[in-house]
Amino acid sequence: MTGEIFDIKHFAVHDGPGIRTTIFLKGCPLHCVWCHNPEGMRRGKDLWVKREACIHCETCIHTCPKQALRMKDGEVSIDRSLCDFCNKCVEKCPARAMQRIDRQAEVKELVDLVTREEIFTRVSGGGVTISGGEPLYQPEFLKELLQGMKQAGVPTCIETSMFAKQEVLESIAPYVDQFLVDIKILDEETHKKYTGVSNQQILSNFRYLAGLGKPILVRIPLIPGITATEENLRAIRAFVDSVNPEIPIEVLNFNSFAGSKYRFLDQKYFNDELRAFPREELEQLRSCVEE
Ligand code: SF4
Ligand code: SF4
Q: N or C: fewer beta carbons within 10 Å in the chain?
């Protein structure tokens, strides 16, 4: 079986226990305004221009048979409505600035890749992490991928928003050793405003997952003025405590580097002014969920 991925990270140390290979599945039903992986949001074919790498040689512009590319304000600009993803610009770009984001990958190919790296991951207590996008958005592929990893003896972890029907979680849970779950905002209306969806299914799925007794780590991305308020963090802690106070929560500092990815995609980032929290503020926010 094949699925759609947009990246593979080797020797990752923040995506679960030990050293891991992280596979990013493409497509997500949420639209968080701060999304750190905008290239993984949409399903389907896509390309971007890594503007910092571009040497302005204009090769891509002369190569494109659809006249989808031109120079605008000193930068290569794509008319995405004209592009048919022939890949000619990607193949000709001397700076590797023009890149396809999407890739079809086979389960076997990914299992083989991960097992080749096992010498590093196994000694560290690591394994594979399936992330996204939202991995539950490709449920059949995800299930087969996890099954393949388990058959190969690779410890598995999934990083998910839990936004899916409970049946999807039921079908993949037997093949997952560790869940990394996002709970971003507890108030339903605020959640809708910033992610585009209600959080009721997410909270219900969290209760279900907690009942399975498998290791869960809740992770909260700290977005200034949105998720990173003491009120929201304490509300999430209280909710998790009401389900199982033993479940740990981790906060993730704001990543201010995501903005450049939006420029690669000709999209506007929601706020270019935001920066990561300094240590003292981070500790104060952390204390809301770890006390
Ligand atoms: S992929 Fe093909 S059609 Fe699309 S911009 Fe590149 S050269 Fe043009
Ligand atoms: S071919 Fe590559 S380096 Fe040259 S202008 Fe196009 S994107 Fe930039």
A: C
